[in-house]
Prior knowledge:
Layout lengths: L1 H17 L22 H14 L3 E13 L2 E10 L4 E11 L5 E10 L14 H20 L9 H13 L1
Antiparallel strand pairs: 1-2, 2-3, 3-4
Amino acid sequence: MKDAILFTLAAVLVFVIFSDRRSDSYTDDASGVQPGDPVPPDVIQALIEKVQESDPDIVPLETLFVNPLGGGDYTARFMFFNSRNFTGSQFDVRANAAEDGTVRIMSMTATARPTDRSYEADKYKTWDAIQGSLEGQLMAFRTQTAEGPKAIGPSPYDATLAAENLKTK
């Protein structure tokens, strides 16, 4: 039994050591783009600016990813902040960036839509309304104290406190 276990472990060890370790990778022969190749910052900036042309009130928050597809095509996901109604949006964008710097958006879908609740300005009360509310609260307090405090009776805490004070004096 020990021989079978040792033989199995040796076979696994030999397989791990001599197995083919190269990884297969996809290369687009037309453009030489491989997945994981860095995307130039100029291309990312051009994509963001092109998306902002559709709505001038959006401000970029986060570039989640930009993947080259080859042939100048890119797929990207961006998060934007709408400064007009204070909401956030997320867009999936597929675009083509030509070598001359022009960008053409082929598709753009909102993958995270903002809620219907947007920012509402504060509604302040006038000083007269605040003054009237304070005077009403003060009058209610005066009528309660004019009748005097309601006696509940001595509490056991007060008796314990008084006894402790007598001991310490």
